[in-house]
Amino acid sequence: MTKEYILDIEPAALIEKLKGLGLEPYRFKQVFSWIYEKGAGDFALFANLPQQAREKLAGAFDLRALAVASKKESRIDGTVRYNFKTRDGYYFSTVYLPSERGASVCLSTQVGCPAGCYFCASGKVKFKRNLSRGEIIEQALAVQNDRNEKITGVLFMGMGEPLLNIKNLVSSIKVFLDPKAFGIGRKHITVSTVGIVPKIFEFSREELGVRLALSLHAPDDEIRSKFIPTKFAFPVKDVFNAGLEYSRRNNARLTIEYILASGVNDTKECAVKLTELIEEETGEKDDIQVNLIPYNSNTRSSFKTSDMKATDSFMKVLKKSNILSIVRAAKGIDIEAACGQLGV
After folding, report:
1. How does pLDDT run across 85-132, given as a tens digit for each residue?
2. Which of 53, 84, 242, 338 is a plausible cystine mate for 49, CB 3.0–4.6 Å?
3. Which domains does the chain have, with CATH numbers?
4. Looking at the whole model, is its pTM more than 0.85?
């Protein structure tokens, strides 16, 4: 008999399944704590459950479904790239990002990516399937256990378009927010999207309050078409306004992700257009941040990285209009773990 993957089971359903095994109702809180709060990797470690209960759990469920196929650690900044193998033989990556403020993980939501953005290595990997609820959560558990360090931030910026796996995305976020599980604050969880307008509205209605990052990369539709395939290229203004609606409804900062590619979208004219878009569509109460990301070279794209002069010039235009903006430093670039490099 095939065992169920326990991380795939929603809490309400798990309560019923535990009852079906003959476990007392109060055992659910104990099981839930061992799975998500303590991150135990074996039912034998569920110490406050009787031996018979642990054996029933082990007979009915699998606690893990992923295997670490390889692991690389950056000699520059301590970033670690994990390559996981699924039970059906697919591979995808997760990135551990250490900082003085805590430890974050960059999670994948799909095997391959249907968006296929032209600048992104993972976009060149053929889409196979969505990752399940459990496979998303297990990435964080695996990194946390491997590093022996509590995860304090989650970025849904790995392989895949998160909003095309919205059911499992939402379910996993609820676990990350749950104070009896990971207990991560909503300001420390960010979902990145290529900008699928209907899906942004759908995600907004969940009212989870986590941050949203728009993979915009251009101030107008013509330039954006050089980065984003036509099938996902909603008008720039529509994408931006959908993000604003999310930000306002969820009382959460909206981040504009902007890859800087030399000679393509890094000119002063582009900076002025982006500034005008933001100023025209936002009000005083809107919380907006622009992340400028110097393009990270990979073998699957011909774009070139903007030089510091162009980057500084672009930044000055934004700051002159008092738009909160930063240049995001690349992490894990020597192990192909930086933004846009996660092709397997």
Report:
1. 999 999 999 999 998 888 999 999 999 988 878 777 766 778 999 999
2. 53
3. 4-62 (1.10.150.530), 67-335 (3.20.20.70)
4. yes
